[in-house]
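// run 5 | inverse folding | seed 20
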């Protein structure tokens, strides 16, 4: 996983191919808690599989951000991974956009496209 500061108010989390094998989202939650003034973009470009641990991590991170008045956007989600989000009903809870550029623009303008 890679954490990148896109701006003073936006943190980018680039997930690895198998995010369940490490503690990316837990680390992001700690970072977000320490720096509660940031929105988060989670980049799924490399993600090929996802387990319940990742889903739970996303829900926890969403709640932490929401409590702090911040938002999380998921981008570059493949059709296979999106099917998982739809199957478990998270496409209604989480916010999705096409890519990192669209995510930054959405945060700048507070407009979102839902999956």
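// decoded
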């Amino acid at each position: 996983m890679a954490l990148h500061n896109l701006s003073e108010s936006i943190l980018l989390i680039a997930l690895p191919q198998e995010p369940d094998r490490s503690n990316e989202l837990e680390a992001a939650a700690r970072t977000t808690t320490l720096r509660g003034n940031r929105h988060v973009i989670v980049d799924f470009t490399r993600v090929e599989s996802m387990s319940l641990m990742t889903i739970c991590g996303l829900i926890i991170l969403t709640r932490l951000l929401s409590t702090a008045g911040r938002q999380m956007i998921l981008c570059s989600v493949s059709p296979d991974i999106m099917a998982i989000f739809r199957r478990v009903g998270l496409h209604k809870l989480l916010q999705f956009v096409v890519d990192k550029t669209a995510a930054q623009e959405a945060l700048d303008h507070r407009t979102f496209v839902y999956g």
